[in-house]
Structures are given as structure tokens and as C-alpha cells.
Amino acid sequence: MASPPDKSKSIKLERYNSYIRRVNSTKLLNASSKLVLRATVLVALIVVLVLTLNYPKTGEPHGVQRQMLSSGFGAWEKQVREWGRARREGGMRVLVTGAAGFVGSHCSLALKKRGDGVVGLDNFNNYYDPSLKRARQAMLWKHQVFIVEGDLNDTPLLEKLFDLLPFTHILHLAAQAGVRYAMHNPQSYISANIAGFVNLLEVAKSANPQPAIVWASSSSVYGLNTHNPFSELHRTDQPASLYAATKKAGEEIAHTYNHIYGLSLTALRFFTVYGPWGRPDMAYFFFTKDILHGKSIDVYQTPDGNQVARDFTYIDDIVKGCLGALDTSLKSTGSGGKKLSPAQLRVYNLGNTSPVPVGTLVSILESLLSTKAKKHFINMPSNGDVPYTHANVSLAFRDFSYKPTTDLSTGLRKFVKWYLGYYGLPQRLKKQFRPLPS
Ligand SMILES: O=C(O)[C@H]1O[C@H](OP(=O)(O)OP(=O)(O)OC[C@H]2O[C@@H](n3ccc(=O)[nH]c3=O)[C@H](O)[C@@H]2O)[C@H](O)[C@@H](O)[C@@H]1O
């Protein structure tokens, strides 16, 4: 006979099962609430990150925030006002864009040294090693030149700078430079050289008083021009690179703002500027580095076997040209965003007037570095380069006595001296290297 089911056993089993169910559902709840918590934290982090990266759409300008945080609220504005004031009778108040750049840092220092007020603006982008830009910034800081960290396309920042200080002049040197890089990152040229320039002009035309503007164009605007030496009267409507096209576009945009708003505008066509504190993306700079490190270098030649040549221009000559252009620029004539009378519009070549083949540049470096280069002669790639440049500078000489005085050997000697002081000598060369006579 089957025994009757044990009731107490089945009740216990039921209790046990319900306990297990409760435990499982609590575990599930814990697991899902943990998941929700984690997801919330992640979303919050993403929101903070996005806000930080986009900061600010309005209000305080990007980058300046960091300076404010590090130096106390209002400190950077005070710095701009104080260091931007001229220290000499009749001195200028100059906003130098691209002040942490090669030409910008040299010009800022020269202006400051002669008693003009200078405020720098730079976005410290990473087109080349930003630590070099930081080192230039530190050097300028010692001379009481303050660089605001921000972008040309940041309208609130530009407006704020003009609110803080009525600049008499802008020396506009911020740009996306480099001829060959335009094939890799075309948009950066549009953003800096066109959109950024227009933004600056928009703010300048509404400023009261309007500043006079001197800005960096480029020898590359001559493009496929074959007349020699290059004169401001020659054609510049055949650019060979997007870089050149954006600089040429800048010249046309300058014409428009001069014509409509009465802005005084001077374009300076720089010819392959080199020297201490230079740009690591330029041939003389990376040739030096590669020769010292035993790496081979590409020396370009034209398809008919000739070497390419450049009118290499030493930085000190360029600085004199920039200051000369600033000193002779007339006031803008607009007010309240309207032109009141015709204003000055100028274009000048700033070159050295004596082109040198790239092979000769390499020989000079070999002798200065006491090291043989591993040269690799190749046909110039079709990436925007032109076979030669050669400046006629008679206009700049006529109007502000521009006269280059530094030949390539002298200038490169100064560059190499700086380079070795800044970067030091690679270990492998320390024994054999003879110091440069001063
Ligand atoms: O004059 C100018 O307007 C321009 O000068 C330079 O452009 P570039 O003259 O091409 O200067 P580098 O890039 O330093 O080249 C110098 C020479 O070395 C040649 N090169 C360059 C690179 C290389 O690997 N090998 C080589 O032989 C180039 O063809 C050129 O003839 C600057 O990079 C531009 O920003 C500036 O606007």
C-alpha cells in the first residue's frame, strides 16, 4: 500500500523553492541596477566629454578657460590689457595671430622690444610638434607677451579681445602652412586660411576703431608663373597647390573687405622663410634632423634633371619687412561696419632675391653639421611644389626700405646653432662633432 504523501515535506520544498526564487530575483535586481548605474555613469562621462570638447558654443572662449582656471578668474583679461599696452609714445597695440608660430613669435618679440603693445593668439594645433610652440610661448612670456589660446574661428573670443583692447593693428600670421600637406588634409586649409581669415575680417570691420591689417600671403601664389623674378604685377591665377589657392583666395577676400568696409589691408608674400625657432615641417629643418640621425633625405629635381631652387629668406629680414609694413600701413577708414572713404590695399613680395638650389642648401648643412648627407635624388613629386621661386622686392624697398641682408650660409649657420642648442646632438655624433665657430 502506498504511503500517503508527506505534507510537511512538500511544504518545506515549496518554501525552499520560493526562497530560491526570491534570492534569484534579488540577484537579478542587483545585477540590473548595477548595469543601469554603470550605463548612467558612462552616459554622464560622455556628456561631460562632449561638452568639454565643444566648449564653448557661447560665453567664454575655448582654451582661455584653461588659462582662467590656472591663473584665477579675470587674470587673463588683466594680462591682455596690461601687456597689450604700448610702452612708447605713439606705439601700436598689435594683435598677432599665430604668435606661437615661427614668424609670429619673432615678430611679437621684435614689436615688444621696441615698445609696442602685443597680444598673441594661437590655437597650438598639432600640425607639428606643439611642444616647440609651447617653448616659443614660454620665451615670449618672459618678455611679457601673453598668448591667448584660441582659434581664429572663435567669434566670441575675437570680439572679446577687441572689447578688452582697441587694437590699432593686426599682424595676421596664423594659417595652415605647408605646400605638400594640403594633399593630406585639405579641409584644414579651408578652415584656417579662408574661414578663419574671413572671421577675423568680420570682427575687424565691426571694431571701433577698425585696425589696419598686415597678413601673411605666400610666394606660392605665383604657381605656374614662368616670368622671372616674380613681380607683384605677374599673374597669380594659376596656383599649383590648394595651399597656394587658399592664400590667393585670401588676397581676393582682402580686396573685398577693403572695398566694402574700408579696412586697410597689406598682404606679404613670404618666400620660404627659415631660421632659428623654425618650422619642423620645412625641408631645411627636417634635412638637418635627418642628416644628424643618419637618415637619407630626398632631394627633389625637375623632370629635366635640374634641381629645384628656392629664394630662401632669413627670418630677421622677414621681421624687418613685417614691421616696415605695419609702420607704413594707413588707418582703416570704416566705422560702424561701413566704409567712409577709400582705404589702403597693398601686396608685397618679401624674399631674398637670390634663389639657391636645394642641393646647395644640403651642402651647406653638411659642412655646418660636419656630416655627409645620404642624398636620394628624385623627381619632384606632383604634390603642389613648383620648380623655383625668385622674388623681386623693389616695391617693398620703395615703400618701406625692405632690403634682405642675410645670405643662406649665414642664416643656416644661425639656424644650426639654435637647433643644436635646442635639441642637442645625437649620441653617435658627440665625439666627432666640431663646435661651430661663432
Ligand atoms: O614660400 C612660400 O610661400 C612657402 O615656403 C615654404 O614652402 P616651400 O618653399 O615648399 O619650402 P620647403 O617645404 O621647406 O621646401 C623647400 C625646398 O625643398 C624641396 N624639398 C622639399 C622636401 C623634400 O623632401 N625634398 C626637397 O627637395 C622643395 O621642393 C623646395 O624646393 C613653406 O612651407 C610654405 O608654408 C610657404 O608659404
Q: Quick one: overall form?
A: globular
Largest sheet geometry = 7 strands, parallel
What is the assigned CATH homologous superfamily of the domain at 64-274 and 314-353 and 387-405? NAD(P)-binding Rossmann-like Domain
CATH architecture of the domain at 64-274 and 314-353 and 387-405: 3-Layer(aba) Sandwich
Protein model, in words:
The chain is built from 13 helices and 15 strands. With 438 residues, it is of the alpha/beta class. It has a domain at 64-274 and 314-353 and 387-405: 3-Layer(aba) Sandwich (Rossmann fold), CATH 3.40.50. Helix 5 (130-142) links the parallel strand 2 and strand 3. It has a seven-stranded parallel β-sheet, with helices on both faces. The chain binds uridine-5'-diphosphate-glucuronic acid. Uridine-5'-diphosphate-glucuronic acid binds next to helix 9 and strand 8.
